[in-house]
Design a protein that fits this description.
Blueprint (H helix, E strand, L loop, with lengths): L14 E9 L2 H14 L4 E6 L7 E17 L5 E15 L3 E6 L4 E5 L8 E6 L6 E4 L7 E3 L9 E5 L4 E4 L2 E2 L16 E8 L3 E6 L2 E2 L1
Antiparallel strand pairs: 1-4, 2-3, 3-4, 4-15, 5-14, 6-13, 7-10, 7-14, 8-9, 8-13, 10-11, 11-12
């Protein structure tokens, strides 16, 4: 599976993220224990403040796992807990970045991360042509190729991670050619060329590993 929880092209496997949390009171300790147990029932996010990066917070996607309740007590109130998070998608992601719609190809997208990111959505506005969207900086020369025209002023979205497409809010994967090579946003500069549509915009999260 791709990034642990979406079917598709093989990618990096999950990884465990371990960290400690200091609780300054018995009530805070219990709140952490209860909240961690509740969050284990579904896929969720974990935000960590990590020094030395160009973003303040990295977001991981996965499931809470172990919590060591054999706390290290500093005094009568304060305790340190050891937690483990199963990052099904092994990348950590910065805040979402938006690139405004451009009617002139290529659309320039710059990622400050150090790994390719597929957490990206492209938004197309139709002009009656048949769109082809290509990231010329993708090492596999990835392109999304439509099989039929996108009507004038119609809005299409392409979720590059889930490999899903909508037109006017309706799922339209059948409009995407099987010959398409789904791509991501590479670290650094990306030139996303497009033909057969009026404009393209992008939103994405830069990725770190």
């Amino acid at each position: 599976p791709r990034d642990g929880d979406v079917a598709g092209v093989d990618s990096f496997g999950p990884r465990l993220v371990s960290f400690n949390v200091v609780a300054l009171s018995h009530a805070a300790r219990q709140q952490i224990v209860d909240g961690w147990a509740l969050a284990r029932t579904s896929i969720t996010t974990l935000d960590l403040h990590l020094p030395g990066l160009p973003v303040e917070v990295l977001t991981f996607y996965g499931r809470p796992r172990e919590l060591d309740e054999t706390a290290i007590y500093w005094d009568d109130e304060s305790a340190e807990l050891a937690l483990t998070f199963d990052a099904l998608d092994p990348m950590g992601y910065g805040p979402e970045q938006s690139v405004a719609a451009d009617s002139s190809s290529p659309l320039s997208v710059y990622s400050i991360g150090n790994e390719p990111s597929r957490r990206c959505t492209l938004t197309l506005v139709g002009d009656g042509g048949t769109p082809i969207i290509t990231n010329t900086d993708d090492p596999d020369a990835g392109s999304i190729i439509f099989t039929q025209p996108l009507p004038n002023a119609a809005v299409a979205t392409i979720d590059l991670r889930r490999m899903e497409a909508t037109v006017g809010g309706v799922r339209r994967e059948s409009w995407i050619s099987p010959a398409s090579m789904w791509f991501g946003v590479e670290p650094g500069a990306n030139s996303i060329t497009f033909t057969g549509c009026a404009s393209v915009a992008a939103s994405f999260r830069p990725a770190w590993r």
